[in-house]
Design brief:
The complex is a heterodimer of chains A (214) and B (222). Chain A has 214 residues and is mainly alpha-helical. In chain A, 86% of the residues lie in helices and 0% in strands. Chain A has a single domain (3-213), classed as Orthogonal Bundle (MetI-like fold). Classes of the chains: A mainly alpha (214), B mainly alpha (222). Chain B: Keywords: Amino-acid transport, Cell membrane, Membrane, Transmembrane, Transmembrane helix, Transport.
C-alpha cells in the first residue's frame, strides 16, 4: 500500500469523524428531548417514548439506515447519502442516549426533586440547575461508551453507499488486492479513535465508583 | 410526489424471508455459543499466572471492542483463506460473530467472577469442599445471576449485528431482503417489513431470556 492509498483512507477517515460528530451532537440534542419526554410524568408521552426507544434498540442499525435512506426518497425529500446517513445515525443516537440519560435522571436521588420543588423552582430551573447537572455526571461513562459504539456504527454507512473509512478501505482493497493490509490499517485507524475514549470512559467509571463508595 | 406503496414483492417473498429468519437465528445461536466458549476460555486465560497470556487476552478484548464489526468480518473473511481455511460465508460469519461477542463476554464474565466475595471461596474450602465443588455449589449460581442481564443484552445485540453478515453475503434475513429489493426495487416496503421482523426476533429473544431468568435465577433460591 503506497502513500496515495493511505491518503485516500485518511480522506475516508475525515468523513467518519464528521459523521460521528454530526450524529453525536444532533443525537445529543434529540436525545435530551427524548430523555425529558421519557421522564415528564405524562403517561401517554412516556409510553410513546418508551416505544420509540424500544424500536431503535430492537432493530439493527443497518436496517434503520436503509429505512431512513429509502423512506426519505419516498416522501419526496431529495437527500444525498451523507444527509440520509447523518439523519439515520442521529435518530439512532437519540434513542440510545435518551435511554441512557433517562436512567441517569432517575438515578438522581428523589430528595433532589423534592427539595427543588420545596424551593418552588419551576420545571425548567429544576431540570437545568438541579437534576441534569447531576444526571450528566452519572451518565458520563455510559455516554462515552455509546460514543464509541456510534463511531464504530458509522462504518455501516459504507453499505448504504457513503464513502467513509470502511468504504474507502473497500475501494482501495479492490484496487490493490491486499485486503489484509488495507483492513489492518483501517482497523488501526478506528482503534486509534476509539481506544482513548474507551480508556477515558473506564477511568471516569472507576473514579465515579470510588467517590460514590466513600 | 405521489407514491403508492406496493407490498406485493414482500408478500411474494414471504416464504423466503421467513426461511431467512431461521438463518438469522442459526447465526445468532451459533455465534452466542462460540462467544460463550471464547468468553469462558478468555476469563480462564485472563486469570492465568503467566503474564504474557493475561496481556494477550487484554489486547484481544481491547482490539475487538474498539474496532467496527464490519471491519472485523471483512478481515476474517479475507484472512481465513490465506490461513488455508476455506469456508462458506455463513460459517465465516459465525466465527466473526463468536469472536466479536466473545470479547464482550470476557469482560462481562470477568465482572461476574469478581463480584463474588473472596470469603465465600475461602469458607467453602474451610468446610472441606474441593475447589470444583466450591465452584459448582457456591460460586456458580450467584456469578451467573450477576452476569445474566448484561450477557443476555449483549446476546440480543449480537443477534442484531447478524445483519452485518450480509456484507459478506452470509445466509440471513438482511441479505435475502437485499436480493428481493434488487429484484423488485420496492426498497422501502422490503426494508420496513424486515425491520419489523427484526423487532419481533429481538423481542422473542428477550422474552425467552426473561423466562429463563425467572425460572432459574429468581429468589427464593431453588
Amino acid at each position: 500500500m503506497g502513500r496515495e492509498e493511505f491518503v485516500f483512507l485518511l480522506m475516508g477517515l475525515k468523513w467518519t469523524v464528521a459523521l460521528s460528530a454530526v450524529a453525536f451532537v444532533c443525537g445529543s440534542i434529540a436525545g435530551l428531548v427524548v430523555a425529558l419526554a421519557r421522564t415528564c410524568g405524562i403517561a401517554a408521552v412516556e409510553r410513546i417514548m418508551a416505544a420509540y426507544i424500544a424500536v431503535f434498540q430492537g432493530t439493527p442499525l443497518l436496517m434503520q439506515l436503509f429505512v431512513v435512506y429509502y423512506g426519505l426518497a419516498l416522501v419526496g425529500i431529495k437527500m444525498d447519502a451523507w444527509a440520509a446517513v447523518s439523519l439515520g445515525l442521529t435518530l439512532h443516537a437519540s434513542a440510545y442516549l435518551g435511554e441512557i440519560w433517562r436512567g441517569a435522571i432517575e438515578a438522581v436521588p428523589k430528595g433532589q426533586t423534592e427539595a427543588a420543588k420545596a424551593l418552588s423552582l419551576g420545571y425548567v430551573s429544576r431540570m437545568k440547575d438541579v437534576l441534569l447537572p447531576q444526571a450528566l455526571r452519572i451518565s458520563l461513562p455510559a455516554t462515552i461508551g455509546f460514543l464509541v459504539q456510534l463511531i464504530k456504527g458509522t462504518s455501516l454507512a459504507s453499505i448504504v453507499g457513503f464513502t467513509e473509512l470502511t468504504r474507502a478501505g473497500n475501494i482501495i482493497s479492490n484496487q490493490i488486492f491486499q485486503p489484509l493490509t488495507v483492513f489492518s490499517v483501517v482497523g488501526a485507524l478506528y482503534f486509534l479513535m476509539c481506544c482513548p475514549l474507551t480508556i477515558y470512559g473506564a477511568h471516569l467509571e472507576r473514579r465515579f465508583a470510588a467517590t460514590s463508595r466513600s | 410526489m405521489n407514491y403508492t406503496m406496493d407490498f406485493t414483492p414482500v408478500i411474494d417473498g414471504l416464504p423466503n424471508l421467513l426461511a431467512a429468519c431461521l438463518g438469522t437465528f442459526t447465526l445468532a445461536i451459533c455465534g452466542m455459543l462460540l462467544a460463550t466458549v471464547i468468553g469462558i476460555g478468555g476469563v480462564v486465560l485472563r486469570q492465568s499466572p503467566i503474564k504474557f497470556l493475561r496481556w494477550l487476552v487484554i489486547g484481544f478484548v481491547e482490539l475487538i471492542r474498539n474496532t467496527p464489526f464490519l471491519v472485523q468480518i471483512f478481515f476474517i473473511y479475507f484472512a481465513l483463506p490465506l490461513a488455508g481455511i476455506r469456508l462458506d460465508p455463513t460459517p465465516t460469519a459465525i466465527i466473526a460473530l463468536g469472536i466479536n461477542g466473545g470479547a464482550y463476554a470476557i469482560e462481562i464474565i470477568r465482572g461476574g467472577v469478581q463480584s463474588i466475595p473472596k470469603g465465600q471461596m475461602e469458607a467453602g474450602l474451610a468446610l472441606g469442599l474441593h475447589k470444583a465443588q466450591v465452584f459448582r455449589l457456591i460460586i456458580l449460581k450467584p456469578a451467573l445471576r450477576a452476569i445474566y442481564p448484561s450477557l443476555t443484552s449483549q446476546f440480543v445485540l449480537l443477534t442484531l449485528s447478524t445483519s452485518i453478515a450480509s456484507a459478506i453475503s452470509a445466509y440471513e434475513l438482511t441479505s435475502v431482503s437485499q436480493r428481493i429489493e434488487s429484484e423488485s426495487f420496492r426498497s422501502f416496503e422490503v426494508y420496513f417489513t424486515v425491520t419489523a421482523f427484526y423487532l419481533v426476533i429481538s423481542w422473542v429473544m428477550m422474552r425467552i431470556f426473561a423466562l429463563f431468568s425467572s425460572r432459574y435465577f429468581s429468589y427464593p433460591v431453588k
